[in-house]
Specification:
disordered N terminus; 40% strand; 633 residues; eight-stranded mixed sheet; alpha+beta
Length: 633
């Protein structure tokens, strides 16, 4: 009896200790620089059969302020064949006292895809709770079962910047003997305990302190410890698969997701063949077919099919004239096939922040598809969801990353093109007249290509008010800016963009007695300076470099001469270079020339201060003024 009492007391003590969600029980080092603390993040994954996987999870998060609300993650995604069998949330106050219990029936059941989606099998159960005070704690538990073992959950031990982790546990078990692969990433000095079993793995981490976001640092996912999981044999919505290499995975996708979905009606085949009649150049054929797709279809997200991975058929897209990235890419591929041009459906992890498919860990990855057209001397890329993107323009959405080309022979991991820094180019030319009343009028032409083209070509459809809003923001240092005529020329064949802008501005010059102060860089000041960071911990990343060149002709006001010019300046660093000069061209006319090159690359953390100093100098030089004085009679 005494032993039983001691055993029961120990259990009660452990239970009460584990349930201590008061703010005071959190280690101090987890609270420093934190918006939230993950008290417990625990997930157990059990693969019971090729087509049955059960995930049991419990997550406890203490939210310290309103910025931490987004880290609660009290939701459950599911597809039509998934079953969410258990779902509950409990809310605690700062003292760890329970104040609310939220059952499954109280969760909001809604589409998991944004309003741009026409049809979708993906849904999400979302907890509905509005905090009345901070801090508060959410204990969230769920159990769900899915037949889709193709998407074995990966695990991250840290959520985000300014979020600490008190305890993180993850286990993955396979009960049916199917081999699986796993990869440990960025474990470093985090002290993560790992255990391998005959049929699975498990991990545990404790007291991981919050990370502070630093300017121009690597993406968060490239910094934090995580575990990647992939089954060698898997199931996806009624279709079985097997893959341990990118070649095998691409072969499965070709045979099971794409094969037979490129059929078109004879009328459509005849029509598209007539469009390219008498044309033999495959690049020109590609342009014509791509133009046809852009003019006759529109993008609407459709998440039906095998887990949202199978495209709707080409004949259906041809009939309804819309599709998602999968459907429109497959449709364009089918049209090109009809005119004798080979192309490949390609999977990518798209987004402005460069994210690669992991070349060392073949698995179902990516969030987007587009089309690769291999020509004799070049590889052409088509963004089939866009009605404006030119042929072979990747832009910052899909450039410079590993992607998976799907061929009949299997998958091929390739890298999309990267623009050299100097190709991300902008040339600004301006003719500026300085008036006697401290006003200026000007005519500006801005020529762009590369990533700088990517920032502008879509503006051709902007309204007058949208254009005014843009230039008032772009030239925010020019007070009382008034726009005249604004014109755009978009050369899609050369992927070049030209802006022509007429403007005037009152009170541009400032006065000092009978002298005028004039800033000659009126059209392209780069004033951004990264924030100061003491004791920086992360390397400096410049993902894309660029080159700006400027030449302004400046006509001085009648009766004024230059008293003080800006001396020629040249700065040359490992991060780039800067040069500026102002020289007389003829009486009353100055020529301002400027060149700024920023080099892409990864630099050690110790270089951050040097880079910041360089950008401070650029901002200072770009803001520099010359002194004008009245001519002596």
């Amino acid at each position: 009896m005494r032993f039983y009492f001691l055993f029961l007391s120990t259990l009660l003590f452990q239970y009460s200790f584990s349930q201590d969600y008061s703010l005071t029980s959190i280690p101090k080092e987890l609270l420093d620089n934190a918006d939230a603390v993950v008290r417990l993040d625990k997930m157990d994954v059990v693969v019971e059969a090729l087509d049955k996987m059960t995930i049991t999870s419990k997550r406890v998060v203490t939210v310290l302020n309103e910025n931490g609300d987004e880290h609660v993650h009290a939701f459950a995604f599911y597809e039509k064949n998934d079953k969410v069998s258990d779902l509950e949330a409990i809310v605690y106050n700062a003292s760890g006292e329970e104040i609310k219990k939220i059952k499954k029936r109280d969760f909001l059941d809604q589409s998991a895809i944004s309003g741009g989606t026409l049809y979708s099998d993906s849904r999400v159960l979302v907890m509905r709770y509005t905090p009345s005070q901070y801090p508060y704690t959410i204990e969230f538990s769920k159990v769900y079962t899915t037949p889709n073992t193709a998407f074995a959950p990966n695990w991250s031990f840290l959520d985000d910047y300014r979020v600490g982790t008190e305890r993180s546990e993850f286990s993955f078990t396979v009960e049916n003997g199917i081999p699986f692969r796993h990869k440990e990433v960025n474990f470093g000095d985090y002290g993560i305990a790992a255990k391998e079993m005959n049929n699975g793995i498990s991990y545990e981490a404790k007291n991981l302190v919050p990370m502070e976001r630093e300017p121009l640092s690597p993406s968060f996912r490239n910094l934090v410890p995580q575990v990647k999981i992939a089954m060698n044999e898997f199931h996806l919505e009624g279709v079985n698969g097997r893959a341990t290499t990118w070649q095998e995975l691409g072969k499965w996708m070709n045979d099971e997701l794409l094969a037979g979905r490129d059929e078109l009606s004879e009328a459509t085949i005849t029509h598209v063949k007539n469009l390219v009649k008498d044309i033999s150049d495959p690049l020109e054929k590609t342009r014509i077919v791509y133009d046809y797709v852009q003019e006759n279809t529109r993008y609407i997200s459709v998440q039906l099919g095998i887990g949202g991975w199978m495209p709707i058929s080409a004949s259906d897209v041809d009939r309804v004239k819309y599709g998602d990235c999968k459907g429109l890419t497959n449709y364009t591929k089918a049209l090109l096939k009809a005119v004798g041009v080979e192309s490949y459906y390609t999977v990518v992890h798209a987004g402005r922040q460069i994210r690669h498919l992991d070349k060392d860990f073949p698995s179902i990855q990516g969030n987007h598809v587009f089309l690769n057209v291999p020509l004799e001397n070049d590889e052409i890329w088509l963004e089939c969801t866009s009605q404006t993107t030119p042929v072979n323009h990747l832009g910052t959405f899909t450039d410079n990353r590993n992607v998976l080309k799907i061929t009949p022979q299997g998958g091929e991991l390739v890298r999309t093109k990267r623009n050299p820094d100097e190709e991300n180019y902008q040339l600004t030319k301006a003719d500026v007249q300085v008036g006697n009343q401290r006003n200026v009028t000007g005519h500006v032409q801005i020529f762009s290509r590369g990533s700088q083209y990517d920032q502008k070509y879509w503006r051709t459809t902007n309204t007058r008010s949208e254009r005014e809003e843009f230039y008032k923001s772009y030239w925010s240092y020019v007070q009382d800016l008034q726009l005249g005529e604004v014109a755009y020329q978009n050369n899609e064949d050369k992927i070049e963009f030209l802006e022509t802008v007429d403007f005037k501005a009152d009170n541009y010059l400032s006065s000092a007695g009978d002298k005028l102060l004039f800033a000659p860089n009126i059209s392209n000041r780069n004033l951004g300076v990264p924030d100061r960071v003491r004791n920086r911990k992360m390397p400096l990343i410049i993902s894309r470099g660029y080159l700006d060149e400027d030449e302004f002709t400046i006509r001085l006001p009648e009766g004024y001469v230059v008293e003080t010019l800006i001396l020629p300046i040249e700065e040359d660093t490992k991060f780039g270079s800067y040069a500026v000069s102002v020289e007389p061209k003829e009486p009353g006319v100055l020529v301002y020339k400027r060149r700024l090159l920023i080099k892409s690359g990864e630099y050690p953390k110790e270089d951050y201060k040097l880079y910041r100093d360089f950008r401070k100098k650029v901002a200072g030089y770009d803001n520099a003024k010359i002194v004008l004085s009245k001519k002596k009679s």
